Amino acid sequence: xxxxxxxxxxxxxxxxxxxxxxxxxxxxxxxxxxxxxxxxxxxxxxxxxxxxxxxxxxxxxxxxxxxxxxxxxxxxxxxxxxxxxxxxxxxxxxxxxxxxxxxxxxxxxxxxxxxxxxxxxxxxxxxxxxxxxxxxxxxxxxxxxxxxxxxxxx
Length: 154
Hints:
By secondary structure, the protein is an alpha+beta fold.
C-alpha cells in the first residue's frame, strides 16, 4: 500500500477545489429538500466568494489534503466567524475508494493538531443529519451535539 501523505493543499489546486466544493455543497443542500438545486448553486457560489476572497483561501484557514499518488480526501478548517479560539471544520471529503479505512479520523487528528498549534482551544462543525457515518465518527472522537436543527415537511 502506498504511504498516505497529509499536507496543506497547494495554491495551484485551489480553482479545481473551489469548483468541486460548490457543486457538492449545492447538491447536498438541495438533496435535503430545503432548496432547489439552482438556488443552492447560487448560494454556494456566493458563500464561496466570501470564503475565497480573490480566489485565495481566507486568512487563518487551511485545507489539509490526503494523497497517495492521487487525492484521497481533504479537511478544511479555519477560525469560527463568531467565537474566538474556536476552529470550525468547514468541509471534509473522503473519496469513495478511500472510505472505511480510517482516513477521516487521520485527517481529523491532523486538523486538531493544526488547530492546537494555531492557538485554538476547541473545534466545531456542522454535519447534515442524514450523514450518520460522519456523525458516528465525530462522536467516537469525543465531539458532542451542541445544536440541533430539525424540519418537518408539510
